[in-house]
Amino acid sequence: MAVPHGRSLADFLPLKPAEQLLLKHAALGGMTEISTRRPTDATPSNTVRAGFLRFLILGGDDLNPVHELGVMLKGAYIEGDLELRQTQIDVSITLNYCCLQNLILRGASVKGMIDLTHSSCKKISAELLRASGKVYLDHLVARGNINLQKAEIAGSLLLRGSNLDGQGGYALIADGLIARSVHFEEHFAAVGEVCLIGATVKGQLICRDCTFKATKALALSADSINVQGGVFLATGFHSHGPVRFSGARITGQFSLKGAHFEGKDKREDDETLIAQNARIEGVLVMTELVSPLNNAAFSGSRVGTLHDDADTWGNGIGLNGFTYDFLTTEAPLSAQKRIDWLDSQVPENTGDDGLKGSESKFRPQPWRHLQHVLEEMGHAEEAREVGIAFEKRLRKVGLIGQAPAGIPRGLRWLYRLPALGLHSLYGLFTGFGYRPMRLLSWFFGTWLVCTSVYWYAAIEHKVFAPSNPLVFQNKAYASCTPEYGETWQRQHPDTERPAEIGNWYTCKALRGEYTGFSPGAYSLDILLSLVDLQQEKDWGPITPTPFPGYWDELKNLEWGHGIRLLIWLETLIGWGISLLLVAIVSGLTRRKE
């Protein structure tokens, strides 16, 4: 029966010396060792034709079958392209320390492993490859791209110590790859983009002690990758160019501990890590980075726990929509450091771009989410500090007192100015609702100052008098009136007037059952608008009859006028404090922390 060319030993006779040795060992299931080193040039003693190697990999023929252990060759120079596309390979392929040209496994199915450890090649085309074992590309030297698009590897894909050079293009294309795990370790180096877009890794993706260098856009792209274990861009990981994990789904942790991210051109505005809209169920570990992470983007991403340190973050980071359930740091948790972290975002998101109001691109979400997480973790004081800083930032970017859309532009200041004033007072009195006990300080401070002024005005200027006409019109108390004191002084010009004469506050003639004037109680009665201590009702400042002209009135201002104004001011302050206290007690001003 006729067989295709290349499927019979007769098609390759006479055999080269290395081929004769390989034929012998392939039948016995042993390693064919031509050399312990990878050859750089073809010689009569080390050359194996690619067609003959293909003949054995496909099982040989009826008279020259290949052992179940597969084809194992070491130190040979493979002459020509090894063409295995769309083939069914029932044995493992082991080509160690071999020099290959192009290896073509497109659409091939291998029942076993593929081992190219310490070998070299130009290109590997293995799209849609199916392998039931591991694929060893350890210490492989490739001077062209390796294409594993949509390959399915039941075992691990290992690139430990490999050196890949895409010659200006991709170094590794593994879009849609399915593998047990993927390892870039032991001084792995790639010049050109390593692409894992849409790959599925059932175990771990490990990038340790390795270098990725971009020649065009990216150093490592893993958008929409699905890793059911963890991702470790760990100690020794070094990227020269952006690394992308946008849309990634990672079940375990995503560790960047000890990693080094550099921009492609080492400029300050170069992107380093882009992980937008990613989902990380475990811990995002970002500690001990070699240099701060500048121009990183985590917008729209969600992680279980964020673990970082003081040296993690650089400038120009994107955090809008970035959420995390828990927050841990190497150092004690500090609200100010977290605020500095939020301020390290891109300038337009922090409000530092100079735009105000509706034109501002300030993003509140990172602030609100940090505040919420701190509160949930029990760090109430840190949450309050973040809340206060957020309110100040809203004021800075002009987002306080924005007028509704229907108000004409020229009249919007009528809405804005009162809102800014109230917001300022709200911050001054209560720390925007986060420092309610500050109200007590304002209350007692106002009470003390006003009490002192009232006392001085009552003692030195005799300003206060009873407001009940049955008292101040009673002739029995004539000695308490200022007029009596002035008359007494004229009658006794050489004698110091006694304090109780002509002063209602100190007058001894005033009967004890009438409410005596108390500066402290009077001030408290005004401040506590909802409480009646009988002071404000029974006492008031003496003010002269107004003059008909404004100028005359201004020229004749007395202490009574000043005390009246102070009473009005204290009344307003008292109402404001009372309303805020009632609101706080009832929970109306509790911020969503």
Arrangement of strands in the largest sheet: 5-8-12-16-19-22-26-30-34
The backbone outline, from C-alpha atoms, is rod-shaped
Our Rg estimate from Cα atoms comes to 43 Å
Classify the oligomer. Answer: single chain
Count of alpha and pi helical runs: 14
> How far apart, in Å, are the first and last alpha carbons?
83 Å
Would you tell me the structural class of the helices and strands?
A: alpha/beta
β-strand number: 39
What is the mean predicted local confidence, pLDDT?
A: 88
Into which percent range does the helicity of residues fall? Answer: 25-40%
Per DSSP, what share of the residues sits in E-state strands of 2 or more residues?
A: 15-25%
Domain count: the total is 3
Q: Which spans of ≥5 residues are poorly predicted at pLDDT below 50? A: none
Biggest beta sheet summary: 9 strands, parallel
Task: Describe how the helices and strands are arranged.
Layout: H1 17-28, E1 32-33, E2 47-49, H2 50-57, E3 71-74, E4 77-79, E5 82-83, E6 88-89, E7 93-96, E8 102-104, E9 109-110, E10 114-115, E11 120-121, E12 123-125, E13 130-131, E14 135-136, E15 141-142, E16 146-147, E17 152-160, E18 163-165, E19 172-173, E20 178-185, E21 188-191, E22 194-195, E23 200-201, E24 205-207, E25 210-213, E26 220-221, E27 226-227, E28 231-233, E29 237-240, E30 243-244, E31 249-250, E32 254-255, E33 260-262, E34 273-274, E35 279-286, E36 302-308, E37 323-329, H3 335-343, H4 347-350, H5 365-376, H6 380-396, H7 413-430, H8 438-460, E38 464-466, H9 469-472, H10 482-491, H11 519-527, H12 535-538, E39 539-541, H13 550-555, H14 559-586
Parallel strand pairs: 1-3, 2-4, 3-7, 5-8, 6-9, 7-10, 8-12, 9-13, 10-14, 11-15, 12-16, 13-17, 14-17, 15-18, 16-19, 17-20, 18-21, 19-22, 20-23, 20-24, 21-25, 22-26, 23-27, 24-28, 25-29, 26-30, 27-31, 28-32, 29-33, 30-34, 31-35, 32-35, 35-36, 36-37
Antiparallel strand pairs: 38-39
Helix pairs in contact: 3-6, 5-6, 8-11, 8-14
